[in-house]
Design goal:
Elements lengths: L2 H13 L2 H8 L3 H15 L4 E3 L4 E3 L1 H24 L8 E7 L1 H6 L1 H11 L3 E6 L4 H10 L4 E3 L2
Parallel strand pairs: 3-4, 3-5
Antiparallel strand pairs: 1-2
GO molecular function, one term: DNA binding
Organism: Neomicrococcus lactis
Protein name: DNA-binding transcriptional LysR family regulator
């Protein structure tokens, strides 16, 4: 499995079209298709359902997509931290919240986090119900949640 195959898969998954994904990656459609086929062979599962006009993700593709995105995110974080001389903290912090937190607490919290940790990428997920927030915390898709 190669990094460029993962990048190609993510482009196809987001575009749901091989032609648009190829344009986005500045490559021809045939090598893109070959790259996806090689990735599927390496994984032992079909990730993309193909037809003449569109593409769709198989169940295996839907399962693989968040992991593929995590690989690229972690690689980006590794590059940034490796190239940093200032001892800054790099990473992502995913915060889930209900609408109530949105107006009072969230703006000062995000301002403070961005001021103290400029290398930290904040991912904000609003409008979550308490149970959804707890489920996402357990699954690891949220790092912090506020639920009322």
């Amino acid at each position: 499995m190669e990094l460029r195959q993962i990048e190609a898969f993510i482009a196809v998954a987001e575009e749901l079209h091989f032609g648009r994904a190829a344009q986005r990656l500045h490559m021809a459609q045939s090598p893109l298709s070959q790259s996806i086929k090689k990735l599927e062979k390496d994984l032992g599962a079909q990730l993309v359902e193909r037809n003449t006009r569109t593409a769709s993700l198989t169940k295996a593709g839907q399962s693989f997509l968040p992991h593929a995105r995590n690989v690229l995110t972690e690689l980006d974080l590794a590059r940034r931290s490796t190239n940093s001389d200032d001892g800054a903290i790099y990473g992502q912090l995913s915060i889930g919240f209900s609408g109530a937190l949105n107006h009072s607490t969230l703006p000062p919290l995000t301002r403070a986090l961005r001021a103290y940790y400029p290398g930290l990428d904040l991912i904000l997920n609003g409008g979550l119900l308490t149970q959804d927030a707890l489920d996402q915390l357990r699954q690891g898709s949220l790092d912090l949640a506020s639920a009322h």
